[in-house]
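Fold this sequence, please.
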Amino acid sequence: MDLQSDPIEVSDETESAIREYHKNGASVIRGILDKKWISTMREAIQRVLDHPGSASVEYTPKGEEGRYYGDFFLWRRDPDFEEFMRHSPLPAIAAKVLKSNSIRFFYDQLLVKEPLTKEKTPFHQDLPYWPLKGEDILSIWVPFDRVGLQQGGVRFLKGSHHWKQRYAPTAFGKDSGFAKIYAKMGWEPLPDFEKNDNTYTWLNWETEPGDVILFHPLVIHGSGGNQSSNQRRRALAMRFLGDDVVWDSRPGTFIEKETIQEILPELNLKDGDQLESPCFPLIRTFSIQPETEIMKQNNFQENSIRNSSHE
């Protein structure tokens, strides 16, 4: 089993982003991924786009301009996606955000909007789509292009993760096959927050390759189409789970879709079970040290250096 147990130390900027995440439901960390990761994953994404998987969804109707492509569980079929899931800086960040001693991977989701794609991503919360219960859940949105609102950058409703209300999932496309599944849940649909856009505070960031956005599974978010005529919007949503997450067997989650089930082995998980399955690998264990303990260690090391210089 490929696990690490090194203490986690992060920059002041990342610490600030984590505080903003807990307060607002979303935040950005700049320059966390190096150029090698960006280059490797761009090539991997192109392989997927050239050879779509059986669970993939083309959200743009045939004959329309652009292309809105979605795909799931890519790490299970492409070694570069698996390498990114296991060995990029993201699991360490997830452990720090969730304050968890172990990090399990739920799934990766590719969301590509090519130039002149009109299709929006409807506003939604993530957790209602998923067969999960628990607090220790984090999504990290990873752009591989320069992205602003014009290219379909994500907007987040500030503080909405603190609301008690959970809304029914919304299918991303009319013909995606998910709408009938989500209807089983019978929950209240999400109100049209865009009608009263000025009533709320929205968060969004212009991002460069190397930046990532942290966001809570209950924060309301969505995005527009890619209005650019020449800029792509390739992004990967990475879903990480911490210590308290268990299986939720309620009906109407995305895992019920036949094309998703076909790419996964039989799960055999019951309500309340830990997600102990090869589908959801345990990718890291950490010894999370409080900042005060790290400071003590650093001060001890500094004092040792000073003392040795006087000998």
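The first helix runs from residue 12 to 24. The two ends are 45 Å apart (CA to CA).
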